[in-house]
Q: What sequence folds into this?
DNA sequence: CGCAGATTTTAGAATGATTCTAACATAGCT
DNA sequence: AGCTATGTTAGAATCATTCTAAAATCTGCG
């Protein structure tokens, strides 16, 4: 018998199943936090804290595991703007980022607002997996 | 009486002095490695190893110190492509990067080869300090 | 339902990059 | 040479992240 899923986790459960991931208590909570309130940027630490504030019982290691699993199945995108910690973005459509160097805040820039007009060919034997544009901000 | 500077360090000494940095044995060696052979991309670890191979006696902490000082005075630029370690680039002119995700190799793309046509305005109270374009490569 | 086997979670240790500390050494001026 | 600010260093400390091995949980099946 499948276990009972609280109504507020229905959507998250659907997303996890569609991605081929088991619906564990921890993953449901994290998915709910990540995917039920518009696009978000989180770090492992920030997500862990947020989950803890909501009363979730899970370990930091699980947050790392889930962030990587979600990324692997295409539910998240990793964003590298700071040598030191990884950010994860729930916005999967092509877009770019403002990065506030002082605060560490990350903000989406819709794709239409930046035009990368010409791209060089990828070097022999390689292919371009992704184009990242980061506008670094100071105040 | 100023100390004697070996001829091969003359150029490096000039650059350090021009930047307002004292010419210590360690800085001379690092500057020589960094600035005497065209543009380079290094990490603290790679630079430390290279200096050690050349017989330099210095500590890793000094490499970190120097990389940051050189960056602060505008002799280097920090490049963030990997959450985990910082790269430093001796190429100070505007340009972008190919990043081989598999090997960690970084390669310059001349500015002329990429055109970032339109930029959004910086958000209220902030200004755009830098535009980074990274083409991530897989093989 | 109730179990077996596979997958997950977890605490804690381990790792890797980087920074800090506070003692020692040196550069640059007089 | 001698003074003093600056630079270097070993080693400890910190931070983000990954690993490990054991305990917990999930899912399919009888």
A:
């Amino acid at each position: 018998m499948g276990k009972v899923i609280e109504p507020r986790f229905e959507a998250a459960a659907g997303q996890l199943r569609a991605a081929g991931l088991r619906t564990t208590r921890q993953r449901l909570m994290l998915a709910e936090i990540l995917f039920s309130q518009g696009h978000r940027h989180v770090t492992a630490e920030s997500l862990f804290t947020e989950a803890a504030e909501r009363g979730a019982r899970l370990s930091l290691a699980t947050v790392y595991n889930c962030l990587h699993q979600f990324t692997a199945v295409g539910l998240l995108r990793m964003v590298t703007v700071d040598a030191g910690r990884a950010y994860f973005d729930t916005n999967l459509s092509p877009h770019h980022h403002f990065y506030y160097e002082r605060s560490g805040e990350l903000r989406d820039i819709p794709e239409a607002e930046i035009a990368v007009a010409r791209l060089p060919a990828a070097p022999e034997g390689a292919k371009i997996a992704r184009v990242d544009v980061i506008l670094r901000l100071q105040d």
Remarks:
- The domain at 7-79 of chain B is CATH 1.10.10.10 (Arc Repressor Mutant, subunit A).
